[in-house]
Amino acid sequence: MTVSTGEGLSSAPLRVGQYLPTGAVLGSAHELRAMWANTRMVVLCVLSAALYAAVLIPFKVLPLIPGVTEVRPGNAIPVVCSFLFGPAAAWGAAIGNMIGDFFGGVGPGDLFGFFANLVYGYIPYKLWSLLADDDQSPTNFTPATVAKYVVCCLAASVLCADLVGWGDNMLSLRPFWILGNIIIFNNMVAALVLGPLILAAVYPRVRAGHLLYRDVMPELRERPKPVRVAAAVMLLVGETGAWLSGNLLSTGHWRPQLLPATLLASPYDKAVAIVVTPFIILAAVGTVLL
């Protein structure tokens, strides 16, 4: 594979498993779009989607809230694949969840579920690459490593829950507080209980086989660290604001005085659209800039 490098760096063939110098550039395309030009990343995307769907579908018969959500041990798959396959796992999570939805009934809210699972598979590895030392393994279970892992999983889970809760509440399907909390619980249980066990089993083997996303997509280069730090702050502020305001509005515990009473009636779809949307936009921009 040959890629163009930044100023002062020459173009040169790259071996599998070889990292680019710091100055190398991916080009103007975002990695979520650029990965589709890499055949092996596409294969890893298909693998991630198939694994996710295969684990989701059998548990459709064990609903936590009928018609809303079910027991989902499969929610560990996007996190595990994120640390392994990067952007391929993000698309795999979105596509795999969409396949699973076909076995539980498809509705307009599933569009929000697609993007929610996209960020659920995208955020863990992006935040990890910012918080962790260069080439640090998530299977090195020191207190500092565990803390970083929890932060990455929680950030991904909260935005995932925000997007589904926000979308369903605006469509007057379900109140934000139901999905905005049960999804976080579902995601975190799977990510914290099953995720580390699976990673401990597969991460060293995938790494030894040079199949981590940095090996498969060596042209990938992170944005400057100040930009990524600012993006992480935007993400965390946006998703936390969306979660807090969505819960308070949908339960009737907060009635903003600036909004007329006609917008503050149950199911609070209009209030959620007005108040929560700016936080969602802030979190989305932060996610893109990570």
Describe the structure.
By secondary structure, the chain is mostly helical. The chain has a single domain (2-289), classed as Arp2/3 complex 21 kDa subunit ARPC3 (Orthogonal Bundle). It has 10 helices and 4 strands, in the order E-E-H-H-E-E-H-H-H-H-H-H-H-H. A hairpin with an 8-residue loop joins strand 1 (2-3) and strand 2. It is globular, with a radius of gyration of 20 Å.
Keywords:
290 residues; mainly alpha; Arp2/3 complex 21 kDa subunit ARPC3; two-stranded antiparallel ribbon; disordered N terminus
Low-confidence stretches: 1-27
Specify the CATH architecture.
Orthogonal Bundle
Secondary structure class reads mainly alpha
Distance, first to last CA: 25 Å
How many independent structural domains?
1
Whole-angstrom Rg:
20 Å
Order of helices and strands: EEHHEEHHHHHHHH
The count of helical stretches stands at 10
Tell me the β content: under 5%
Portion of residues in helices? 55-70%
Shape by Cα distribution = globular
